[in-house]
Amino acid sequence: MNKQLALVTGGIGGLGTEIxxxxxxxxxxxxAADLGSRSDRVSEFLDEVSExxxxxxxxxxxxxxxxxxxxxxxxxTDKHGPISxxxxxxxxxxxxxxxxxxxxxxxxxxxxxxxxxxxxxRALVDGMTERGFGRIxxxxxxxxxxxxxxxxxxxxxxxxxxxxxxxLAREVARKGVTVNSVSPGYCETALVMAVPQAVREQxxxxxxxxxxxxxxxxxxxxxxxxxxxxxxxxGANIPVNGGYFMDF
Length: 248
Description:
Elements: E1 5-9, H1 14-25, E2 29-34, H2 39-48, E3 56-60, H3 66-80, E4 85-88, H4 103-131, E5 134-139, H5 142-146, H6 152-172, E6 177-184, H7 190-193, H8 197-205, H9 215-226, E7 237-240
Parallel strand pairs: 1-2, 1-4, 2-3, 4-5, 5-6, 6-7
Helix pairs in contact: 1-9, 3-4, 4-6
């Protein structure tokens, strides 16, 4: 039986790497898609996942470009086969208060974090519906639920991502394709660990479980949503935040 093929955007980032590893552990072939210009990081990534060298590969992709997503994803499917699983984990931040935010800081974040989800889904969803199976998981954020000072751009993009998720889930539900989002809280990623220690301590003080999350804890939820027998979950947002934000 051929292994299902998963594509993870932002796949060489801290969270993306762990998602690639977890999907490979679950028997998937995985393509980490990210900016090809990050050659040093690509080499590090391939070393980090070397135990899965037969099942994890890298392909360059700029999710912010509709044209590149259209042409590159077709080339990737021609090379590797049909993509059954799409995880949109690519994202950037350009934090500053709105009164200081430039139009570029706004548009850069919206273009990568939200337009990128449209670009990849638009290129791949038809193939999934035609084959009668697909799993799409969009990586949102707790800050898309709560808002965060200095992140009007990021919070807007991440909240918009879940609105997109719910709408697309309705469109493709009868075609065997599920669309869900996962909203991580503060995790042990390079981005969070670069925050000054005093600020991190304040963040942890507001997390009921009393610690930062681990990327593998996010990846485990993504893997669950990508499973064949998770077909009755669609249009959902799964918070993985240690109790930092709770609702129902």
